[in-house]
Amino acid sequence: MLATSTAIEKKDLVSAEVIEIYENKDLAEKYAAMAVPKTFVGETLVSSGLQPEDFFVESLIEEKAVEYVMPEGREELKDYDIVVIGGGPAGLTAALYAERSGLKSIIFEKANVGGQITITPVVENYPGVGSMAGKTLVELMANQTMEYSSILQGVGVADVKKKDGGFEISTGRGIYNAKAIVIATGAGSKKLNAAGEDKLAGRGVSYCATCDGYLFKDGKSVIVVGGGNSALTDALYLDSLGSHVTIVHRRDAFRAEERLQQSVFQRNIPILWNTVVKEVSGDKVVEKVMVEDTKTQQTNAIKAEAVFIAIGYEPYNEIATKLGLNMDEEGYIKVDDKMRTSMPLVYAAGDITGGVKQIVTAVSQGAVAALTAFEDIANPYWKK
Amino acid sequence: MEKKLITEDIKDALRDAFKDLKDEVSVEVYTKIGVNDMFNDITVEFMKTMSELNDKIKTGFYTIGDETSKRRNVKRSPTVLIGPDKYNIRYTGAPLGEEGRSLIMSIIMASTGQTILSAESKKRLNRLKDKRHVRVFVSPT
């Protein structure tokens, strides 16, 4: 609606076109826009994902992607008690608890509020809500947080430095200051590191079946790689869309929940056990996938129009690395039971701390992090 | 099928949303038989219903290849143009899911001239001096 709004405001200068990819596959292929949403100004990609309004307008004017937007006319408040980095369940809860403790907070979310839940079709294990679409649960959480705190969606944090007993945070909206920081940056999909994977990303290679699966409904052949909850959920979702799904898994058994396994077996979704993907190939889009049997080393080409990769997560630990926080061997931030990291006044919560990566644990950790921050700001334990 | 697409509850909500329409808005729907037929049907049905809900929404239906489509440079089926004599707003593909909501909002904004942009963004937009074409790729999910 931002695009059409600008076409109305500047009717002689701006033309806006909203293109549905399923019915216009040739255009989606031409612009490598098989993963949506994607916004182009002229022929230039300015955003993959939702953009905040001022970023969109600025990229429209500049005809390029922008990472920083100067506030127009008004000076925003830049001093906070707590800056929360990441707007998933952990971050949303941390800000909620911070504000309710009397601490002024703000959340920076570089992509979409909700994090990993937004791409979860149905959440069935969050107590109290029964069965609910991930997006709906996110909306509920975000609305509740926004009653207290501010969320800057689409605004990333580039750097955090210690300054005057607090922190200086460089963001897409300028420099902010905070007494304490909660890092809730989460974790993202791991890559396969197979040949052709990067080249065909957005052209059939996807890390989000919920986002991109629709394009491959009704009889298209797709491959899901992985054996955990995400992979099986993706396989079931794609199967329900009518795609011809094959699961490729490197082991001889799934590690997903029993219930998901049963559903996959009941629907007779073909499974290639002990098999890894060696290469994804195609001219402009995915056409075939080369797999290898890990026992016999025999390779085999499978025709497929899409490959959905769900082989686990890796931590988004750039900020933690910049601050020099202690991390485990996989790169997750080490925390104590009060969500304190190795640096005073820096807390971590949610998937970035590793562990079971559940919504219910993320919100719990977010709450603990904010309450500990409250405690520490008032009584600095490291000064005793 | 028709009744399933837009229920009475939704119609009531839309009537309410359209009650503040100001100027007439012409909405042109372009289709071609044999290309995305299912989506053509949905789009035609959707836009017919819109025009029934408020008489300020004036809908025209055209075939790709006819004179109007050539004049408007429409080649893809289905395509919806909003206020094409005044604005350059085009929905290429059926307005399903989130795009249905976006299209309805665009009709309202085209009629009222009021957009969702903040005063700050409008001020920022004054720096724009050259023509721009924005393409937003979407899917119904």
Secondary structure elements and pairings:
The complex is a heterodimer of chains A (384) and B (141).
Chain A: H1 2-9, E1 14-20, H2 25-30, E2 38-41, E3 44-48, H3 53-62, E4 79-85, H4 89-100, E5 105-109, E6 122-123, E7 132-133, H5 134-146, E8 150-153, E9 157-163, E10 166-171, E11 174-183, E12 187-189, E13 205-206, H6 209-212, E14 221-225, H7 229-241, E15 244-248, H8 258-266, E16 271-272, E17 275-281, E18 288-293, E19 299-303, E20 306-309, E21 313-315, H9 318-323, E22 346-348, H10 359-378
Parallel strand pairs in A: 4-5, 4-11, 5-8, 11-22, 13-20, 14-15, 14-20, 15-16
Antiparallel strand pairs in A: 2-3, 6-7, 9-10, 10-11, 12-21, 17-18, 18-19
Helix pairs in contact in A: 4-5, 4-10, 7-8
Chain B: H1 2-5, H2 8-18, E1 25-31, H3 37-53, E2 57-63, H4 67-72, E3 79-82, E4 89-92, H5 98-112, H6 119-125, E5 132-138
Most extensive chain contact? Answer: A-B, 51 and 49 residues
Tell me the distance between the termini of chain A.
54 Å
Please give the domain count of chain A.
3
Q: Note poorly predicted spans of chain B.
A: none
SSE pattern of chain B, N- to C-terminal: HHEHEHEEHHE
Biggest sheet record of chain B: 4 strands, mixed
Q: CATH superfamily of the largest domain in chain A, please?
A: FAD/NAD(P)-binding domain
Give the overall silhouette of chain B: globular
Return the structural class of chain B: alpha+beta
Sequence of strands across the biggest β-sheet of chain B: 2-1-3-4
Rg of Cα set of chain A: 22 Å
User: Level of helix content of chain B?
Assistant: 40-55%
Q: Can you give the mean pLDDT of chain A?
A: 91
Oligomer: heterodimer
Protein model, in words:
- The complex is a heterodimer of chains A (384) and B (141).
- Chain A is 26% helix and 27% strand.
- Chain A is built from ten helices and 22 strands.
- In chain A, strands 4, 5, 8, 9, 10, 11 and 22 form a seven-stranded mixed β-sheet that branches. Chain A has a five-stranded parallel β-sheet with strand order 13-20-14-15-16, with helices on one face. Chain A has a three-stranded antiparallel β-sheet with strand order 17-18-19, with no helix packed on it.
- The N and C termini of chain A lie far apart (54 Å).
- Chain B has one domain: 3-Layer(aba) Sandwich (Glutaredoxin), CATH 3.40.30.
- Chain B contains six helices and five strands, in the order H-H-E-H-E-H-E-E-H-H-E.
- Chain B has a four-stranded mixed β-sheet.
- In chain B, a hairpin with a 6-residue loop joins strand 3 and strand 4 (89-92).
- The interface between A and B is large, with 51 and 49 residues.
- Strand 1 of chain A pairs parallel with strand 5 of chain B, so a sheet runs across the interface.
